[in-house]
Structure formats: structure tokens, C-alpha cells
Amino acid sequence: MNWLKHIKIYFILSGVLLVISITSLFLWRLKLGIDFTGGALIEYKFSKEMDDTNIYDIFEEAGAENISFELSNDYKYLIKTNSLSTETKSQIDSELKNEDEYYIELKYELVGPSIGPELVQKTIYAIILSAFVILLWVAYQFKNLRYGLSAVLAMFHDSIILLGSFSLLGHFWNVEIDFLFVTAMLTILSFSVHDTIVVFDRIREVTKKTHSEIPVIADLAITQTMVRSLNNSFTIIFMLTALILFGGEAIKWFAAALLIGTILGTYSSPFVAVPLLVTFDKIKTFKLKSKNI
Fold this sequence. Notes:
The chain is an alpha+beta fold. Helices cover 72% and strands 9% of the residues.
């Protein structure tokens, strides 16, 4: 199958997704959770089953922001929100009393951000340093800088679109990013590069056996690795889908971030990294021909 005959379509699709993601990040940024901003941590125990929507509305109408909550099996709610004034807290307590007069407040804490600006800055520096090391390592292993550059660009392609996805989710569905999102982000960086290297390694093996041009070799390599890549990815996708559906609110968006990243990584390896490699090779060939002329 001639995968690379649609190379322009792959670049257009990736370009559109990148433009949407960057525009969303510029306009709406990311909705930061309590791990970044700090706020109030409140735990309630109710005497009966409560309607999640009612609880959310009580906090929202009182003026609370960045509301998220987790429910355990014995009618306990752990609620995270921004810092609450005395008046706001009193109003919430009064409204909850109307819903369940026997409810108990188990814990009320004001917490600072667990992910401060310094840690965010260090994380960014670590990602940049990792990308540089990956570029050099892949270039060294495959004896060609174009391999490393293609792998790193595909990795950033996945990262930017993942960030843009959560920017859109935050704007339209109030989805916040927290420490688990950062963990998912770093995990996806690794997955993206790993999948790309598998395809690149097959290109290297095929190159040793044939003297065809790089587009032909790359197309054959994609064909030989596609089934393995899809089987591996679908195994992860099925597991993450189950976590989203049945894992509860605590890990729902963490699993969603991993799911989006897995899909992006599966797509970018054959349809972003390899087309970039082929394009860089064509540019080099064109320059060599121009010099000879």
C-alpha cells in the first residue's frame, strides 16, 4: 500500500490541528486546577445519596470557582475549589443543610499550590533538554540528523495538540489540568518517540536490503510496522477507555489525556515523523542536484 502518496493530506491535517491548538492556547490558555493555583479542600459525609449537580450548583451559586469533587461509596465527597470567604462558606453550609440536615463536614483546609511556578519552569527546561538529547541520540543511532529532527518535531506535534485539546476542554467543559495531567504529558512524550523509533528502525533494516529511494523504503517500513503499532495502541486504547468510563472522576481526565496522547502518537509516527523524514531527504536531494547544475 502506498501510504506516502497522501503526504500532503497528512501535513494539512496536522497543520489544521496545530493551528486550532495554538489558537485555543492563545485565546483561552489552560484551565489550571488546585494543584497549580491552591484553594480549599473540603470533605463532607452525607446521610443519603446526593445529586452531584445539586452540590455543584450550590458551590457555583455561592461564588466558588474551579470546582471539582470525588465521591466514595459511603456518601463522602472530597471537594476542591478556590479559596472561600467566610460569607461564601456560610452560604454553602446553609444550602447543604437544606439538602441534608444530617451532613457532617469532615475536613476543611486551605492549601497552597503543589505545583509552583518554579517547578513548572523546571519541567519546561527538562522537556527542552530531553528533546535536545533525544534529537542527538536518535541522530547518532541512525547516523543521520534528519532522523532525530523528524522524531523531535513529531513529539512536539503530539504535545502541542494535546495541550490544545485540554485548552478546548477547559473552555467548553471546565476541565482543569493538575499534577496527573503533567504526568500524562511526560508519558506521552516517551510513547511518541518510542513508536517513531520502531518505524525508523524498520527503515534502517529495509535500507540494508535494498537500494531503493527513501520514499519507497519508508512506505514499505510503514506497511511492515502498521499492524504491530495498531495492535499495541488498541490494547492501550481499550484499557484507557475502560478507565474513563468506570474509573471515576479522580482519574477520568488523566486517562483522557493518555488516550488522546496515545492516538496522537500512533498517528504521528507513520504520518508525521516519516513524511518529515522523506521531505527532508527530498530537500537534501534537490539541493545536491542544484549544486551539480
